[in-house]
Every structure is written in structure tokens, then in C-alpha cells.
């Protein structure tokens, strides 16, 4: 019950509905118990003595009871529905908000399909149990209590004899719950895996098809499907054993009643009406008792769902505001960034070397910093620390002299804009994609940003222009077009710190040059970080940092680096093989050439 106690915050404010649901069902059940009593009166007081005067009255009383019972059943259904749906609504919102809060590191290992199944199937499981299952479980308890009290009042010896079977039923039901719970937990996670493989397959369908890996994918899916089937078969095996056993035990009480009750009626120590009433009551008690398995099953499923939801809701948030966090003064912020002896290691890569080691950098307000280095050198990691995608492991990063860990996250991120290597577009209009970070932007501002990003031209050529709805993740646009929309989105925000993480890699040289030119204007007054593999994208930077396996290998401006032996000069030599004269005019200051080169 710990799980439900921990979920209390999501349903306890609706305790009125919970009470209504349980109370409605309890009263309806109690009223149902009156029918056997009516039968007893009919047999003992009317049929046996041959007095038919009261039959109509008895029938009318039965109708009256039906009406009142229906009203309480309505109360149960209405309250249970409200309770379950409101709980599911709150849980969905809470999980979704939690997903927004969770840091980048969570998403480094999270699986989309698994998260989707938590937000759908698991919430549904909880909704069903809290809304209805719980009331039904309690109803079974009420039935046993009411039913046996009434049976006791009619004939306590017979009631006691039949009651003997109840603890055995309870014991079997609890054993069943213990056996089935781990299998249900496995089924839930198996559903998650299935969803993950379907979702990944759809997302990666182009890769799958181009590599003709459909058979592999089918096989991979069938492994998960097989596991899912295996657990379900296991569950049905447990059920197959459980239900006949429960039915046998439950109906054993009926056999006792027939034997002892029949004998007592013949002996005249029990009336016929009382035997019929006792039999009716026992039937009412026994029926839900052997559905106890279903109810426990429902409870167990929702417990497994609750565990998975709580696991998500209780996920620690690695990057968050603390009590000392302060908002930035929007107007005063200049964009002066400093890395002070920063070391950074990904939390999920404890056994790997640090992604950044002893990283120092001073980026004065308005400066342009270029980052160059081989793949995996730590460039993206360095810039991701700037907007606290992750927190540094050692050292500090300051913005205008303030440690960024003491700046409110939202305030920090509102002054930064990043264009990622892979441009993600939402499946909405181009206009809305560009204005994503500035919902209040005017059309003129949107067009201006698109113009600077060299996107206005191709957007206007589309039949619906800025109102064109782009497909999921920007399907239907070329890589370069997506990048340009992503650049426009970042520029529209007019950030103090602009980060271009390989943001022009999908563009042809000519378009890139155009954007570079446009950026020269845009970058004025902003601190800009440019990660690129092309020297042409970086050569105008105030400082270029060459990274090699997380360490600064070289730093300086283009001219200085060209005169140094090392990665930069080597990369230049490869990329500008047609312009050897520039190298010749920048002779190496001292030492031999380093023959390592930057891939790109
Ligand atoms: N989210 C992550 N979780 C764990 N390790 C990561 C993550 N992102 C990068 N790394 C690792 O950190 C190191 C630096 O990666 P990073 O992405 O910063 O390199 P990069 O210089 O930007 O490379 P590229 O030019 O290929 O984008 C690599 O060893 C990489 O495998």
C-alpha cells in the first residue's frame, strides 16, 4: 500500500468522490442483501401459511429497493469515474511537467517508448484501480461483513460453518498476489520494450530500409514480443491454477449449507424460508469472493504501474535552481563568459575519461569564440555547459562574474540560444517553428530572422510560405533548410550568448558564406560560440580553441594558429589545398608539424 500512499497527493483532494464511490457501492450491496430476506418472508410468512395478501406489498417493496439501489449504484459509478479521471489527469500533468524539468542527463539514457507507455498504459492502470477496483475490493469486504452478520442473525451455527472457508480463500488470494506481482512488473516493462522497438523502428525507418535490415528488425521485435507473450502465458498459467481452486473452496461452503441446512429443515430447527435466504446470501458473498482473483490482479497491475510512475516522478533532477539562484538583470547582462579550470565528466560515463579537462577560456562580451577539434574532442560538451545542460564536475563557469550555477536556470537560458548539430523542427508551421523561443514575435521580426539565416528565399518559394506545415522532425525539408530554420529560430531570440554547434554543416559553402556574412551583423554585441569542422566558418573568430580529447591543444586567432605546427595548420592545409600560398605566407614559428588532423 506504500505505493498508493505515495500517490496520495494525486487523489486525496478528491476523497469526497472516493468516499462517495465506496459508500455508494456499500449501500447498494447492503440493499442487495435484502432480497434474500424478502424471499424468506415470502416463503415463511406467505407461501407456507397460504396468505397471499402481502405479496403485492412485498413486490412493491422490492421495486422500491431496486430504485434506491440504482441511485446508490449511480453514486458509485459517478464518483468512481470522477475520482479515476481526475487522478489520471493530475498524474498525466505531473509526469509531463516532470519530463519538462528533467535534465539532459536523464534523456541521455531514457527510452522514448518506455516513457510513452508510462504516460499512457500505467496511468490507465492506476485510474482503473483507484476509480473502481478499490471500491470493488472494499465491496467484497463489506459483502463478507454484511452477509455474515445477516446469516449470523438467521442461524449462527450454519453461518459459522460456512464462514470457515473464508480464511482459506483469503490465504489463497494472498498467495496468488505474491506469485503474480513480479510477473506483472515484468509485463509492464516488457510493454515498455515493445513500445520502444516500435517507436525506434518508425523513427529510424529510413535507416532500416536503406540498409535492408527489415528482417533484422522483425526478428528484434519478435524477441521482445516473445518475452511479452511468455510473461502473459506465465500469468495465464497462474490464473488457470488459481480460479478453479478459488471456486472449489468458495463452493465448498454451499455444499456445507445444502447438507447441514437441508438436514436442519427436515428436522424443523430451520424454516424453508431461512434456508433459501441463507443460500441467497451465501451466493451473494461467494460470487465476488472468487472474483477476488480479478480484483487482486487489478490491484497488482496498478501497483506495478504506480511503481513505474513514482520512479519517474521521483527521478532526481541533476540541474536545477537552488535557494541561492538569482535571476539575471536582463538589461545589464553583457555576455562575458569565463570557464575557470573546468573538468567535466558525463554522469553515465563514470568509467570513461572526462569529456573536458582543465578547460580555461575567457570570452569577453561580444567576442566570437571558435571551437575546432576531432570528433569526440569535447566541443559540444564545452558549449552545453554554458546553458547548464549539465553542471561542471570541477571548476566553474561565470557569466558577468557570477557562477552560472547561481543564476536562475530559466533566466540563464532565456539569454542564450543554441543551434544544435541536428536541427529539430516541430510538426507545425515554419512560422511557429521560427517563433518557438519568442511566441510574441511579429511577422516582420520572423521574416527578418529568416532573412539573416538565409531561409527567407526558400520559404517564400514553398506554396504556403511561412504557413507551410513541416512534417514530424522537419520531414520534407532538406538538412540545410532545416538548419537555416533552426538558425532563424535562435537569431529571433536576440540572445546575449549565441551558440552554433556545427550549425552550418549541412549547408553548401556558398550558403554558409552568406550566413557568415549575415552573422557578422547579428553577432555584434553577442558572445558567440561557433563549433565547426570547416576553417572557413571559424577564421574570423577572436579566439579559436583547438580541442583534443578534452584538452586544449592550441588557442589563438586564425593568423596565430596558422603559424603554429599542429591540428589547426594541418586542417587548413587539407581544406585549402588549393591555396598553398596562404600557408607559405604563414611560416611555422618553431618546431615540426604535427601530423594529426581534424576530421570533418
Ligand atoms: N550525452 C552524453 N553522454 C555520455 N557521453 C557523452 C555524451 N555526449 C558526448 N559524450 C562523450 O563525451 C566526449 C566528448 O563528446 P562531444 O560531443 O563533446 O565531442 P565533439 O567534439 O562535440 O564531437 P563531434 O564533433 O563529433 O560532435 C565523447 O567521448 C563522447 O562520447
From TrEMBL:
Pfam families: ABC_membrane, ABC_tran. Residues 337-574 form the ABC transporter domain. It is found in: Cell membrane. This is ABC transporter ATP-binding protein. SUPFAM superfamilies: ABC transporter transmembrane region (SSF90123), P-loop containing nucleoside triphosphate hydrolases (SSF52540). Keywords: ATP-binding, Cell membrane, Membrane, Nucleotide-binding, Transmembrane, Transmembrane helix, Transport. Gene3D superfamilies: ABC transporter type 1, transmembrane domain, P-loop containing nucleotide triphosphate hydrolases. Residues 581-600 are annotated as: Disordered. PROSITE patterns: ABC_TM1F (PS50929), ABC_TRANSPORTER_1 (PS00211), ABC_TRANSPORTER_2 (PS50893). GO terms for cellular component: plasma membrane. Residues 19-301 form the ABC transmembrane type-1 domain. Its main location: membrane. It comes from Cohnella faecalis. One of its GO terms (molecular function) is ATP binding. It is a multi-pass membrane protein. SMART domains: AAA. The chain crosses the membrane at residues 16-35, 55-75, 129-152, 158-176, 238-263, 275-294.
